[in-house]
């Protein structure tokens, strides 16, 4: 196993100083910046919109990995693309036309991703494997940081890895929710390439970020 890509979720950052927080996790070794967008409808929580992504863009050159937990997603894709998203990940349940949504994302010059909730069948992503660059496996029910990892996702990661290998395409498997240095090795062994972590990166405050990211990378 090689060292995983680490995508800290800024949901756990200090929202009163987000720009500074993004610079800190960049300096601490983050590979991506994970941005959780919630609408209080698709998930029971509200967070941020494209204006915040745009405001954060000058603070780092690292890719913005934007996770849209919103329905519908289509009306906001152009705004997030223009704000500086590098990956835009949508849930299949967010609209009736996943294929069209992914096409819209690609047309805007952004890498499309599909997020799979804990109970979403893997078959939901199978017909669009040719169109995407990332699959986000949710290892908690989306909406909040700080929840416990659901180990039942591990065999699903293994199956996804096989599906991707059979396709012969380069698609990142990223795992999101309850990731810690204790469970990271099992997630990577199952076939993940990238780990999202909120609590496990931001705990202990700014002086701990580099150590926290290194602890996750060491699991590879
Ligand atoms: C959950 C979000 C996750 C979450 C991760 O809806 O998609 O990105 O913030 O936070 P932790 O690492 O605390 O589970
Ligand atoms: Zn997320």
From TrEMBL:
It comes from the Bacteria. Pathway: Carbohydrate degradation. The keyword Zinc applies. One of its GO terms (molecular function) is metal ion binding. Binds 1 divalent metal cation per subunit. InterPro entries: Aldolase_TIM, Ribul_P_3_epim, Ribul_P_3_epim-like, RibuloseP-bd_barrel. The lineage of its organism: Bacteria, Pseudomonadati, Pseudomonadota, Alphaproteobacteria, Parvularculales. The active site is at 36 (proton acceptor), 176 (proton donor). A divalent metal cation binds at residues 34, 36, 67, 176. Catalyzes the reversible epimerization of D-ribulose 5-phosphate to D-xylulose 5-phosphate. Its EC number is 5.1.3.1. This is Ribulose-phosphate 3-epimerase. PANTHER family: RIBULOSE-5-PHOSPHATE-3-EPIMERASE. Belongs to the ribulose-phosphate 3-epimerase family. One of its GO terms (cellular component) is cytoplasm. It holds the Pfam family Ribul_P_3_epim.
């Amino acid at each position: 196993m090689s060292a995983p890509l680490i995508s800290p979720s800024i949901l756990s950052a200090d929202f009163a100083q987000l720009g500074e927080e993004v610079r800190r996790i960049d300096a601490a070794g983050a590979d991506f910046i994970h941005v959780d967008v919630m609408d209080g409808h698709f998930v029971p929580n509200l967070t941020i919109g494209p204006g915040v992504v745009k405001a954060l863009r000058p603070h780092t050159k690292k890719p913005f990995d934007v996770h849209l937990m919103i329905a519908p997603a289509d009306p906001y894709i152009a705004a997030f693309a223009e704000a500086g998203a590098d990956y835009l990940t949508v849930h299949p349940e967010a609209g009736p036309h996943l294929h069209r949504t992914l096409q819209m994302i690609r047309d805007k010059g952004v890498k499309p991703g599909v997020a799979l909730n804990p109970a979403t069948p893997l078959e939901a992503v199978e017909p669009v494997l040719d169109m995407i660059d990332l699959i986000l496996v949710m290892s908690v029910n989306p909406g909040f940081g700080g929840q416990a990892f659901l180990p039942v996702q591990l065999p699903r990661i293994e199956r996804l890895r096989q599906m991707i290998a059979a396709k012969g395409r380069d698609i990142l498997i990223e795992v999101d929710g309850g990731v810690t240095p204790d469970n990271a090795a099992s997630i990577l062994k199952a076939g993940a390439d990238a780990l999202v972590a909120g609590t496990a990166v931001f705990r202990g405050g700014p002086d701990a970020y580099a150590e926290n990211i290194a602890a996750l990378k060491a699991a590879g």
